[in-house]
Structure formats: C-alpha cells, structure tokens
Specification:
This is Glutamine--fructose-6-phosphate aminotransferase [isomerizing]. Its EC number is 2.6.1.16. By secondary structure, the chain is α/β, with parallel strands linked by helices. Helices cover about 45% and strands about 15% of the residues. The strands form three sheets. A five-stranded parallel sheet has the order 4-3-5-6-7, with helices on both faces. A five-stranded parallel sheet has the order 9-8-10-11-12, with helices on both faces. The protein has a two-stranded antiparallel ribbon with strand order 1-2. Helix 3 runs parallel beside helix 7, helix 3 runs antiparallel to helix 10 and helix 8 packs parallel to helix 12. The longest helix is centred in the middle third of the chain and has 22 residues. The two termini are about 30 Å apart. The structure holds fructose -6-phosphate. The site of fructose -6-phosphate has 15 residues, from helix 3 and helix 10.
C-alpha cells in the first residue's frame, strides 16, 4: 500500500505531480478553464464581487495562497478565515459574496458549521473537497472535487497542492470574466499551471539534499520560517507541517514583522528557513536575512536558480528550477513538506500518526 515508501507521508508528497494533473485536466478544455464538468453555470464566477474563503489548518493555508492569486489576477477582495473564528464572529457578508469552503476530508466540524452559517445567510457556497460524498460536499450548493486520491498520512500534503491548483484556475476564470485577462493570457497561465506538476518533480529531485539539511534541523528547539507575500503563506504551511510531524517548535513570520518583536528570539544557532521564491521581494528578504545572521541564526534559503545568494547570508541554499513567481508555491511547498518529513524521521517520530492528532477533526 505504501508502494515501497517508508511512510504514507513521503508517498503522498511524491504523488503530487499526478494529483495535480488529475485535478487540473478535467477543468481545462482547449487550453482554457472550463467548469461545465462540475455543473457550474456559465459565467458563474463573474456575478461575485467578494470572496470569503473559510477552512482549517492546511486547507486554510491553501486559502491564503488563493487570496493572493485571486486578488492579483482578478482584483476582487478575498478574505480568508479560520472556520472556528468565522462562525463565532458574526461575519459581515453581502449577497454578492461567494463563500468557498476548503476541506480535504469534507467532515471538519468547524468548516461544516461555517458552510451552514453561509447558507443560513443565503450566500452562494462552493466547496473544494477531496472526499466524495462527504458532508461538506453534500451540503454545499456547488462542489469542486480535488482528485488527490486518498490521503492516509495525518499530515496533509498532496491535498494542499490540489486545493491551490483549483484556486488558481478560479483566479484565471475570474480574471477573464472581469475583463482583466485576455484569452491569450489565460491560455499562458493555464499552461503554466499544468507545468507546475513538472516543477514539483524538480523539487522532489532535491530530496537527498533536503534529507542532509534536515540532520542539522533535528536538534533544534526553536525554528523560524520567514517569507513575504506568497512566501509568507508558504511559511505558515511549512511551520505547521514541521511542528505537526517533528514536534520542533517553530513559528512562521512575515519577514518584515520580525523587527517588531520576534527578532529578540533569534540567538546563536537558531535555524531560520527563509523562503525567497519571489524575485521582486528578494532584496527585502535578503536584508531581513542579514538581520538574523547578524544575531547568529543558521539560515536555510529556498530560492530559484539564477538568484545570487551569497555564502555570507546563508549556511544552506536550496535552489529550485526557475519558474514564474506566481507558480512557485507548488515546488516550494514540496520542499517544505520534505523538510518536515526528514526532520521528523531524523527525530524518530511517528510520522504518519503524530501524537494527539486525528486525520479528520469532527469535533469542535
Ligand atoms: C495539517 C492538517 C490539518 C487539516 C485540517 C483541516 O497537516 O492535516 O491542519 O488541514 O484539520 O482538515 P480538512 O482539510 O479535512 O478540513
């Protein structure tokens, strides 16, 4: 069942290129997004002026990527909320808001309650779900299934990648329907989305180097993930994954926020994983990294081939194949998942079933 892999988590990380293709292909016709197979009415997305994404954990982190991409390409405001917060904060939502619930299992109690609240408010609901026939899939007005196949490892990996792939396709569709993207631009973006599967393969080829690097992370007591923009959303996911499976305490920080308090925790030898996949933000990231190396941090940089990262700012540099900034979350999250996996393995943790955690959280 594990196909020769030592753990389901590693197997599922490696399944991502196929999961992506299976999820994207049915929604693309003649090189353009097409939702007819999902039963969405024509021009479904264009009627909305706001989007509210609601989810928990890793699925919520996928929503953070979705927010950035949709706002960038379609220029409509997107809010992302933790389901257990959303349902109790008496959210202000108007009729032209689309509520998107993201859930691998389709059974998460708070996400289901958030969906019910949105329906009570008579809002349009769209669920992005992996498990067919699950409660969220049954109750949402519209469902987009991700085709990741069963995810057995408690830590979610491939589900995140396919969830973001659908949020990208929604962004392209909205961008075109709002008149901000030409058909040709959407074609190019859709081709790049398909190419993200190949970019993930490129990241998987770094596995041995990541395994080596994880050896020096395994002894850490605290660790920081830093990033800006899409890299900040990725930092949140990388940090959750590492905590969850390796029990190393870590924090994700928007790199520019570091000096507003947290830098006091950076001392000699504290590992910092700096995500630098966004070329436009690289100079800012490098100056944040220098602030940490000056205080003795041991820095791991994840960047793209071709970027110059000098030896005096980073102890380890992992370079991913060059790819458009917009699509870097696909290979970058793969690296973060592998870092979590190999750190946990080095520490002898029960990787597929971390302590105190359940695959599907059906209690509030
Ligand atoms: C983390 C993880 C959890 C889930 C969260 C939501 O690796 O698996 O954070 O992402 O419990 O679960 P779903 O997506 O099933 O609603």
């Amino acid at each position: 069942q594990k196909d020769g892999y030592e753990h389901f988590m590693l197997k599922e990380i490696h399944e991502q290129p196929d999961a992506l293709r299976h999820t994207i292909s049915p929604r693309v016709k003649n090189g353009l997004p097409d939702w007819s197979g999902d039963g969405l009415p024509k021009d479904f997305f264009s009627r909305f002026e706001r989007i509210q994404i609601v989810a928990c954990g890793t699925a919520m982190h996928a929503g953070m990527i979705g927010k950035t991409i949709i706002e960038k390409l379609a220029r409509i405001p997107v809010e992302v909320d933790i389901a257990s917060e959303f349902r109790y904060r008496d959210p202000i939502l108007t009729g032209n808001t689309l509520v998107i619930i993201v859930s691998q299992s389709g059974e998460t109690a708070d996400s289901l309650a958030a969906l019910r609240l949105a329906k009570q408010m008579e809002l349009s609901t769209l669920a992005i779900v992996n498990v067919a026939g699950s409660s969220i899939a049954r109750e949402a007005e519209h469902v987009l299934y991700t085709f990741a196949g069963p995810e057995i490892s408690v830590a979610s990996t491939k589900a995140y990648s396919v969830q973001i792939s659908l949020l990208y396709l929604i962004a392209f569709t909205l961008g075109q329907e709002k008149g901000l993207l030409s058909e040709e631009q959407v074609r190019v973006l859709t081709r790049q989305l398909f190419a993200s599967a190949e970019a993930v393969r490129g990241a998987l080829r770094l596995q041995e180097r990541i395994e080596m690097s994880a050896k020096s992370l395994a002894g850490a007591e605290h660790l920081f993930f830093l990033g800006r923009g899409l890299d900040y959303a990725l930092a949140c996911e990388g940090s959750l994954k590492l905590k969850e499976v390796s029990y190393v305490h870590c924090e994700a920080y928007a790199a520019g926020e570091l000096k507003h308090g947290t830098i006091s925790l950076i001392t000699e030898g504290v590992p910092v994983i700096a995500l630098c996949t966004q070329t436009a933000l690289l100079p800012k990231m490098l100056s944040n990294i220098k602030e940490t190396t000056a205080r003795g941090a041991k820095v791991f940089v994840i960047a793209k081939q071709g970027e110059t990262i000098s030896q005096d700012v980073a102890d380890t540099v992992l370079l991913l194949d060059d790819f458009d900034d917009l699509f870097m979350p696909f290979p970058a999250v793969t690296v973060l998942q592998l870092i979590a996996y190999f750190t946990a393995r080095q520490r002898g943790c029960d990787i597929d079933k971390p302590r105190n955690l359940a695959k599907s959280v059906t209690v509030e």
